[in-house]
Amino acid sequence: MNRADLLISGRVQGVFYRASAQEEAMRLGLCGEIRNLPDGRVEAIVEGPKERIDEFIAWCKRGPPSSEVEDVGVHWSPARGDFRTFVITH
What we know:
This protein has 90 residues and is of the alpha+beta class. The protein has one domain: Alpha-Beta Plaits. The protein is built from two helices and five strands, in the order E-H-E-E-H-E-E. A hairpin with a 5-residue loop joins strand 2 (31-36) and strand 3. It is globular. The N and C termini lie far apart (26 Å). The relative contact order is 0.36.
């Protein structure tokens, strides 16, 4: 099991990015959380099999139709088992 911490920048707030990302993560069977940051970026922490996380990252680079993703920074580490599901936090 792996963990990826993502920082997503661009037009990613106010465009249903978090809710769409939650749907995608749950479809892929991943656990974690996603939240808006005060500087306009979105932060996601996701845990699961590397192949599924790679699929999630690819989705994050596209985002929902109304978003305009400029960059997705990724930091990999071993999973910690902090999550039971994928939630939106504030």
